[in-house]
Design brief:
The protein is mostly beta strands and about 375 residues long. The chain has no helices and 33 strands.
Length: about 375
């Protein structure tokens, strides 16, 4: 679609259904920084203040989730900024919200000191009470676009369900769990070889033998799974060259691949996948499954995807990729979109003094 202080919550929505607090001052209608290419600095709507954790977009549900300075979770409409619901204050949230599930079973979870608070994404009203589950203080929540994994070193990994239950996973020895899929199964892989789809319901592991790219030699080396896309690198007959491939997690089919220098996989392959799985990036490899284009760009590292773009850094400088060609540098200090609304607005973070706001930017009519 991936955010503990004190203060007064004030929501500013221009064109939305939520009104500012009576003692609030209207927020500036223009962005305080440079707009990204394709948009203007004119703000269509904004919401503030946002707490210390970055907001989380849920594109397929047209939602934005964030933790307020008071420690509540707020859900706003991604097209208007209008508040849809707000939770009770949580006990010291310690990480950004994560979203999981789909359709009517979509939910949001927040890690606090020693528990996980779970709320239905379709909640309504104010002071919504969460379902609370006790977990250790060191547990973390991981969502790569589908389900939610609860991981804790030295303890079994578990799947968090929409009903607020923890389903322990029987993880094969030597496997790392990379992602929970929307059907409450999980992708786990060894350092090399086929990966597995783990089912907590019956404790079984279905082995997925991935298709090998042309010129690949030996087994796959899976390194990540995001939105049901497994990234694996493969050796070739040339020790100076490897292949990075994007595979469907459930079937092992190749979605795209590219040849890279062998050293390109040494520092890991941070992975970003757009909501519709059209745009893919793993480390320096970029792919568009609609056009079949895949490219290797030395120095590129992805950070987030929207519908139509992947943003990241190129040689340490902020850059963006518009689904074709090579990534291009962003203007120094320009805002980086992390969601494109249904109306085409670019949703960004903006700093007004000590206040962080969510701002939706209007498209540039000259383009």
């Amino acid at each position: 679609m991936g955010i503990v202080a004190v203060g007064t919550v004030a929501v500013f929505v221009q064109g939305g259904s939520t009104s500012p607090a009576a003692d609030s001052v209207a927020a500036p209608a223009s962005l305080s920084r440079i707009a990204p290419d394709g948009w203007t600095t004119q703000v269509a709507w904004d919401v503030s203040p946002v707490g210390e954790f970055a907001p989380v977009p849920v594109p397929d549900q047209d939602r934005i989730l964030f933790v307020t300075p008071e420690g509540t979770v707020r859900s706003v409409n991604a097209n208007t900024g209008a508040t849809l619901w707000e939770s009770q204050p949580l006990d010291a949230p310690s990480a950004p919200p994560v979203a999981g599930g789909s359709a009517d079973e979509a939910f949001v979870a927040v890690k606090t000191r020693s528990s996980v608070s779970v709320l239905a994404l379709a909640s309504s009203g104010t002071h919504v009470a969460p379902t609370k589950l006790p977990v250790s203080a060191t547990a973390t929540l991981i969502s790569n676009g589908e389900g939610v994994l609860v991981a804790d070193q030295g303890r079994p990994a578990s799947i968090l369900t929409p009903a607020g239950e923890l389903l322990p996973l029987a993880v094969p020895a030597g496997h790392a769990v990379y992602e929970v899929l929307e059907d409450d199964t999980a992708v786990a892989a060894p350092a090399e070889g086929p990966w597995s789809i783990l089912s907590p319901a019956d404790g079984q592991a279905g082995v997925v033998a991935p298709a090998a790219p042309a010129d690949a030699v030996g087994p796959a080396h899976a390194v990540s799974s995001v939105r049901g896309v497994v990234v694996a690198w493969w050796n070739t007959a040339d020790p100076q060259s490897r292949i990075v491939a994007f595979h469907d997690a459930r079937t092992g089919a190749i979605l795209s691949s590219a040849s890279v220098p062998a050293t390109a996989t040494d520092d890991g392959l941070p992975t970003v996948v757009s909501e519709d799985r059209t745009l893919l990036s793993a480390g320096p490899v970029l792919a568009n499954t609609d056009t079949g284009e895949s490219t290797y760009t030395e120095g590129w590292k992805p950070s987030n995807a929207t519908s139509g773009h992947i943003f990241g850094s190129l040689g340490g400088l902020r850059a963006g990729w518009a689904a074709q060609g090579a990534p291009t540098p962003l203007a120094d200090g320009a805002a980086v979109p992390w969601l494109i609304s249904d109306t085409g607005a670019a949703v960004v973070l903006d700093q007004l003094g000590t206040t962080t706001r969510i701002a939706a930017l209007r498209t540039d009519p000259s383009l």
